[in-house]
Amino acid sequence: MKLVSEKEIEIINYLLAAEQNVCEVIKVTDDFPELTLPQAYEIQEQLLVRRQVEKDVRFIGVKLGLTSKAKQEMMGVDKAIYGFLQSDMLAFEWEAIQYTALIHPKVEPEIAFLIAEDLQGTNVTAADVLRATKYVAPALEVIDSRYKDFRFTLVDVIADNCSSAKFIIGSTWVSPDAIDLENIGMVLSKNGEVAQTGSSAAVLGHPANAIAWAVNELGARGKGLKKGDIVLSGAMSEAITFQAGDAVTAQFDSLGSVAMYCK
Ligand code: 0L1
Ligand code: MG
């Protein structure tokens, strides 16, 4: 078992309380400016272990963030980030997302990968990712940074499990060989009005590149993807805000659509 420092415990308690109390908080680097990127991933890991025990949830996959050059430039970073999906984050098209359970949610369109075999290493390629993938599917990710006004540094957002909150997978599951994953167009609509358009090319050139990057990062920390994992490969457009009463749909070329309703 890993020993966690008092400072790390304080940060974990702070972020878990923000989620539990549905209350935004000041970013942790305001109080701990010396926090490093490896420490942020350590805090993320321990926070998720606490969540696993306290909420009795399972790890069900991995998510990527900051995979588009546009978002990296906006944040002044040159790196993607990863976090983990737990079973209470899985939501369904037929069950409304409850607005009051979230702080200031946004939603973004992504391509989900269903991993059919364990994948671990530090030289993993996009081709390896595609070989290990049974299906890809359309997905919506609801992000809900625990930080005030969604303002944070790279270290803050990693500690906060990359703003993860909920995700929904659509019903069209396709073999990755059956489509041109490099260039899937997507239209995101809110209440029937187009809100964003995007392409899978925005996800580090190809979503499988993004996942290969994450597997190599995980590999350097002695971790990897497991058979049955779901991986959210990264946003294909900017995230949009929504409120109670809003319906959001993402329509993808070759992959059908995925929808959510918020009550
Ligand atoms: O899933 C994501 O792309 C979120 C990454 C963190 C950045 C944000 O909260 O906007
Ligand atoms: Mg995302």
TrEMBL record:
Gene3D superfamilies: Fumarylacetoacetase-like, C-terminal domain. PANTHER family: 2-KETO-4-PENTENOATE HYDRATASE, ACID HYDRATASE. Transmembrane segments: none annotated. Residues 104-258 form the Fumarylacetoacetase-like C-terminal domain. It comes from Lysinibacillus louembei. This is Fumarylacetoacetate hydrolase family protein. GO terms for molecular function: hydrolase activity. The keyword Hydrolase applies. Keywords: Hydrolase, Lyase.
